[in-house]
Amino acid sequence: MRQTQKVMLAFSEATTSELNEILEHRFFKEKKSPKSKSKTSLSKQQSTAPMSAIKQENSGTKNIYEIIKQMRLERNAPVDLVGPQKCFDKDKDIETQRFQILTSLMLSPQTKDDVTSKCANRLLEYTMNDIANMDEPELIKLIYEVNFNVTKAKRIKDLAQLAIYKGMPKTFEETIKIKGVGEKIALLYMQVAFQRVEGIPIDVNMIRICNRIPILKEKSPTKLRKFLESQFEHKEWGEINETLVGFGQQICLPKPKCDQCKLKDICEYYKLQNTSD
Ligand code: SF4
After folding, report:
1. GO CC terms on record (predicted)?
2. Which residues pair with 28 in a beta bridge?
3. How far apart are the CA of 66 and the centre of ligand 1, in A?
4. φ and ψ of 171, to 5 deg
5. 187 with 172: CB under 8 angstroms?
6. What DSSP character marks residue 177?
7. How does pLDDT run across 149-190, given as a tens digit for each residue?
8. Residue 94 has what DSSP assignment?
């Protein structure tokens, strides 16, 4: 009997409490000690971590952001055209759309947007049931271009099975419990699938940019998120990820195109690179 069939049989024969235990073990991350903040709501984290504890290194964050926004108006970046949050079929029912959005986001870590988009679009041809019942090697073949495709295939198949038996997650707290989902993905999922902006999703491009200029010298995505959230009004939070990610894809790349950048005059990284000994 195939593994999926075994799981389906286990589901069909289980009582409600047994089913919850199976789901908990198979699809969700292990529970951490009460001290851990990874699964608590962002609002709780914010209330227990005063902003005064976060060092503000640049009071001109909003001015810098406005200059980046101007640069972003000049041309589209991959995130604008093929960002993972854009790979879903608006003609499908809402539950399917939510599944497609979260699947696409789960494919995206450590992978370029155009590659993620190619694989996510391939999966749009398959229903949630198809993916829940698909053999893992077949699923890996469909997403082979993304990095860590073996692990991601397993997580996506698990998500399909979870969605069939429990429905797609509807809150940040439910979403971040799922294996393969971190803070950035859960926040983007809430934003795209539910139009609820619960925080600023932080990605590797944003960390690089913020440390170079610097907006804030900080490698922790959570600390950077809290800092940025303190600098902008809530109504602005929803656009910040896409604006900064696009800037990181177009100009402030790992090998930056500083000659095209309007922040040269204030950028610490640029000054360091262009200071003669
Ligand atoms: S000057 Fe160079 S390093 Fe600094 S923000 Fe612009 S592109 Fe990035």
Report:
1. nucleus
2. 178
3. 15
4. -130, 165
5. yes
6. T
7. 999 999 999 999 999 999 999 999 999 999 999 999 999 999
8. H
For 239, phi and psi rounded to 5 degrees? -100, -10
Expressed in angstroms and rounded, the spacing between residue 270 Cα and the centre of ligand 1 is 6
Q: Please give the full DSSP string across 3-21, using - where no structure is assigned.
A: HHHHHHHHHHH--HHHHHH
Q: Among the atoms of ligand 1, which is closest to the Cα of residue 256?
A: 7
Q: Is 167 left (phi over 0), alpha (psi -120 to 50) or beta?
A: left
For residues 168 and 23, give the distance between their C-alpha atoms in angstroms, rounded to a whole number: 13
Query: Which residues are CB-contacts of 237 (< 8 A; sequence separation ≥ 6)?
Result: 197, 199, 200, 229
Q: What is the pLDDT of residues 208-232, one digit of tens each?
A: 999 999 999 999 999 999 999 999 9
Q: Is 37 a catalytic residue?
A: no
Task: For residue 267, give the ligand 1 atom closest to its CA.
Answer: 4
Strand partners, 178: 28
Tokens of 167: 């429905």
| DSSP annotation of 254 | S
| Phi and psi, residue 30, nearest 5° | -65, 145
Closest CA relative to residue 210, chosen from 250, 244, 240: 244
